[in-house]
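re the bet — no i am not wrong, look at it urself. input seq straight from the record:
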Amino acid sequence: MSGSIKWAILGTSFISGVMADAIKAQGQSTIYGVAGRNTTTLAEFANQYQIPHQFTDFDALINNPEVDVIYIALPNHLHHEYVVKAANAGKAILCEKSLSVDMPKTIESLAAVDQNKVFFLEGLMYLAHPFMQQLSKTLASGVIGEVKSIRGQYCAAISQFVNPASLGALFNLGCYPASLMQLVMQQQFGTELSQQYHIEATGRRGQDGNICESTAIVSYSNGVQCHLHTAEDYGLHAGFTILGSLGCIEFTSNPWLPESQGNHFTVRLYEQDVEVVDVEAKGNGFYYQVEAVLNALDTKQYTVPRPLVQLSDSVDVMQMLTTWHQAALESCAANNTTER
């Protein structure tokens, strides 16, 4: 079936191009059309990726009978509107992270998905890569014992590219370490406990007034202590470390942008030698995300298996992000912290 699957891309941003490359590299489906508001940019994008149909009317592309999958690559605050439209049109949906910027929009989006019984996946693409499957296997082996603490970080100088209405660093970058922390806690302790935590945070506002940097301390009810940090106006730094009762796992390559080669993390029992776990693959996270969508459609599934996010995981991650965001805002208000 996948050979006949046709994609529609909403938006002509950088990430749309990365996804178009992945669809072409995976090679088992095609891009039918792309929608954008700027006709010049739209034409350039369609020409670059050999996309046969261009639309300035997003609804017309969504409702086109030739289209099977809608890829939503618009700013975060617009996601929910187009998830609802695509679901009501009966289309399969791949929506870029973060799913929205608040809980009401998240609930509205996923209610439309559920009511229309359509495929849906939130595009935390790194989770589709074999790198994360290997992490899950290593954790499940019990080699580092019981998880005690997690530290995750993603900083990148993207502030000049982001839409202010998308609410800043947490929803653009912080979603990566937050979602992997959620996966690890869920896998190790179950869904119910992974939802039981308290968040304290600091925050700094950027030039657009949004939180451009924040540190969160996440304390789980079973005593696991976690530290998350994100910033969008300096650096390119990614990290993730899991401390267990017997040893630790530490990513020594970028966990959020896995490639075909150069993916590695270390496993070290305390005071012992380091073991390097190296994962080679057919492509990057976007490649495997495309493959995951096509496999689900081939087998008539509405979601994809873990470690990719289920619908309930998208809710849990968004709840975590909105709680973190609120704590960061309150910290800014208390300390009057602004652009440095």
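see?? The mean pLDDT is 96. told u. also The first strand starts at residue 6 and ends at 10. so pay up
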